[in-house]
Amino acid sequence: MHLFLDSNIWLSFYHYSSDELEELRKLGVLIERKQVTLHVPDQVRFEFRRNREVKFADAISKFKKEGLDKGFPQIFHAYEEDYRVLRDAIDAYEQAKGRILQKLERDYRRWKLKADGIISDLFAKAENVAVSEVALAAARMRVIRGNPPGKDNSHGDAINWECLLEVVPSKEDLYMIAEDKDFREKGSDTAFSPFLAYEWKHAKESEVRYYRRLSTFFKERYPHIQLATELEKELLIDELSKSGTFKTTRRVLNSLSKYSDFTSSQINEIAEVATRNEQVYWIGKDADIKLLMGKLIGGALDCLDAETKGKYDEYFSTSLKAG
Q1: Euclidean distance between CA atoms 203 and 183, whole angstroms
Q2: Is residue 319 pLDDT above 60, yes or no?
Q3: What pLDDT, on a 0 to 100 scale, did the predictor assign at position 257?
Q4: Which domain of life does the UniProt lineage start with (predicted)?
Q5: Which of 48-57, 205-214, 292-301 has the lowest mean pLDDT?
Q6: Which one, of 284, 272, 218, lies nearest residue 246 by Cα?
Q7: What's the mean pLDDT in 274-298?
Q8: 311: how many CB neighbours lie within 10 A of its CB?
Q9: What is the pLDDT, as a whole number, of residue 317?
């Protein structure tokens, strides 16, 4: 899957946004598990670094203006105990607000915000797309002609689009996450630009799957997964089911063994996969596999349904003692 996040998506994590940082952590899992190729053109990196300051400053400015009203009608004063609780709560709010602002501004200058660390890690894992002379010239021509994306003689979106046309393989869909209306159909909040959709279809013989928010992407693609750790577990179980070598089986089981908080459904799924894929059960008597399967399943046999438990006993009966 080829994925592109517009600059405004990255920058939204420094401002008021409905998306949580957990969405970025989930994206990191997808990249690590090679489920997604994230394309980050140089233009996006430059725009991110340039506008991080603007977004942060605006968010802080708005937060500083927000506050609790310290004025109360005179009639409140008669209820002395409750009135004092209200006043103390306001004082506590103001003190906490001051502390968090101080910490935010300190960490911002050091590039130590949580968003900084996660985004830096994702940029390192992504496919960097250098802006070629060909892409730059094509973007300039696009702007001159008045073709989307872009407005007011701005070249940024046009450069990103030309880079994507260069690097995404033909016949593979592009998943685009962009809040910028320059990528949308005029008058619509959700539809992708018909002009760009037509261009992509004829140039790449594939489609553009458009989302305005990262959270919307995850809700459609992984609707039942809220946390990055859950996503990684699900992807590992899926990889185990498709394992075609003993080497892959060992690697995946080792990765799964790092977790201890599996749901009963996941326990059943691991056991079912282990009894269905010969690349797992053929080495079920090996000492390391005994230990790993015992760690994953041995203490949760009651979670298995009758059919799965019967098959598991048949293949891994000696493994059960290793829990």
Answers
A1: 17
A2: no
A3: 92
A4: Bacteria
A5: 292-301
A6: 284
A7: 88
A8: 16
A9: 67
pTM for this model (two decimals):
0.82
Return the HEC string of the chain.
CEEEECHHHHHHHHCCCCCCHHHHHHHHHHHHCCCCEEEEEHHHHHHHHHHHHHHHHHHHHHHHHCCCCCCCCHHHHHCHHHHHHHHHHHHHHHHHHHHHHHHHHHHHHCCCCHHHHHHHHHHHHCEEECCCHHHHHHHHHHHHHCCCCCCCCCCHHHHHHHHHHHHCCCCCCEEEECCCHHHECCCCCCCECHHHHHHHHHHHCCCEEEECCHHHHHHHHCCCCCCHHHHHHHHHHHHHHHCCCHHHHHHHHHHHCCCCCCCHHHHHHHHHHHHHCHHHHCCCCCHHHHHHHHHHHHHHHHHCCHHHHHHHHHHHCCHHHHC
- The answer to whether 176 and 209 have CB atoms below 8 angstroms apart is yes
Tokens of 117: 């660390």
Q: Are the beta carbons of 308 and 301 closer than 8 angstroms?
A: no
Q: What pLDDT is recorded for position 86? A: 93
Please identify which residue in the block is written with the tokens 């185990």.
240
Cα 73 off chain centre by:
48
In this prediction, residue 240 carries a pLDDT of: 95
Backbone CA torsion sign across 233, 238, 240, 243: negative
User: Which tens digit of pLDDT belongs to each residue from 114-156?
Assistant: 999 999 999 999 999 999 999 999 999 999 999 999 777 789 9
pLDDT tens digit sequence for 159-202: 999 999 999 999 999 999 999 889 999 989 889 999 999 999 99
Residue 3, φ and ψ in degrees, nearest 5: -125, 140
91: which 2 tokens?
């004082």
